[in-house]
Amino acid sequence: MNTNHLKARMEDYSRFIITLLILSVYFYLGTIITTYLTESDYGALMMGLTTVSMGAAFFFTLRWKKCSQVLQDQESQ
Length: 77
Hints:
The chain crosses the membrane at residues 16-36, 42-62. By secondary structure, the chain is an all-alpha fold.
Protein backbone atom coordinates (compact mmCIF):
# COMPACT_ATOMS: atom_id res chain seq x y z
CA MET A 1 0.00 0.00 0.00
CA ASN A 2 1.00 3.58 -0.51
CA THR A 3 2.33 5.40 2.57
CA ASN A 4 0.06 8.39 1.94
CA HIS A 5 -2.91 6.05 1.71
CA LEU A 6 -1.94 4.38 5.00
CA LYS A 7 -1.48 7.73 6.75
CA ALA A 8 -4.88 8.91 5.51
CA ARG A 9 -6.47 5.66 6.66
CA MET A 10 -4.86 5.98 10.09
CA GLU A 11 -6.14 9.54 10.37
CA ASP A 12 -9.65 8.38 9.50
CA TYR A 13 -9.45 5.56 12.03
CA SER A 14 -8.34 7.94 14.77
CA ARG A 15 -11.31 10.20 13.98
CA PHE A 16 -13.65 7.19 14.09
CA ILE A 17 -12.20 6.16 17.46
CA ILE A 18 -12.64 9.60 19.00
CA THR A 19 -16.18 9.93 17.64
CA LEU A 20 -17.20 6.49 18.88
CA LEU A 21 -15.76 7.15 22.34
CA ILE A 22 -17.68 10.41 22.59
CA LEU A 23 -20.83 8.59 21.46
CA SER A 24 -20.20 5.90 24.09
CA VAL A 25 -20.00 8.55 26.80
CA TYR A 26 -23.34 10.00 25.69
CA PHE A 27 -24.94 6.55 25.66
CA TYR A 28 -23.53 5.82 29.11
CA LEU A 29 -24.84 9.09 30.49
CA GLY A 30 -28.20 8.26 28.94
CA THR A 31 -28.08 4.92 30.72
CA ILE A 32 -27.44 6.61 34.05
CA ILE A 33 -30.21 9.15 33.50
CA THR A 34 -32.81 6.58 32.43
CA THR A 35 -31.89 4.16 35.21
CA TYR A 36 -31.44 6.37 38.25
CA LEU A 37 -33.08 9.71 37.64
CA THR A 38 -36.21 8.77 35.71
CA GLU A 39 -37.72 5.32 35.62
CA SER A 40 -37.62 3.88 32.11
CA ASP A 41 -37.36 0.52 30.39
CA TYR A 42 -34.59 1.69 28.06
CA GLY A 43 -31.68 1.09 30.43
CA ALA A 44 -30.72 -2.25 28.90
CA LEU A 45 -30.99 -0.85 25.37
CA MET A 46 -28.78 2.10 26.24
CA MET A 47 -26.20 -0.15 27.87
CA GLY A 48 -26.24 -2.35 24.78
CA LEU A 49 -25.63 0.67 22.56
CA THR A 50 -22.78 1.72 24.84
CA THR A 51 -21.22 -1.73 24.53
CA VAL A 52 -21.60 -1.79 20.75
CA SER A 53 -20.03 1.63 20.29
CA MET A 54 -17.15 0.74 22.62
CA GLY A 55 -16.64 -2.50 20.68
CA ALA A 56 -16.54 -0.58 17.40
CA ALA A 57 -13.98 1.83 18.88
CA PHE A 58 -11.87 -1.14 19.95
CA PHE A 59 -12.16 -2.64 16.45
CA PHE A 60 -10.96 0.58 14.84
CA THR A 61 -8.14 0.78 17.39
CA LEU A 62 -6.94 -2.63 16.24
CA ARG A 63 -7.19 -1.55 12.60
CA TRP A 64 -5.24 1.64 13.39
CA LYS A 65 -2.53 -0.37 15.11
CA LYS A 66 -2.27 -2.77 12.15
CA CYS A 67 -1.89 0.16 9.72
CA SER A 68 0.72 1.69 12.00
CA GLN A 69 2.75 -1.53 12.00
CA VAL A 70 2.54 -1.82 8.20
CA LEU A 71 3.64 1.80 7.85
CA GLN A 72 6.61 1.24 10.18
CA ASP A 73 7.59 -1.85 8.20
CA GLN A 74 7.44 0.08 4.94
CA GLU A 75 9.48 2.97 6.32
CA SER A 76 12.15 0.65 7.74
CA GLN A 77 12.70 -0.99 4.33
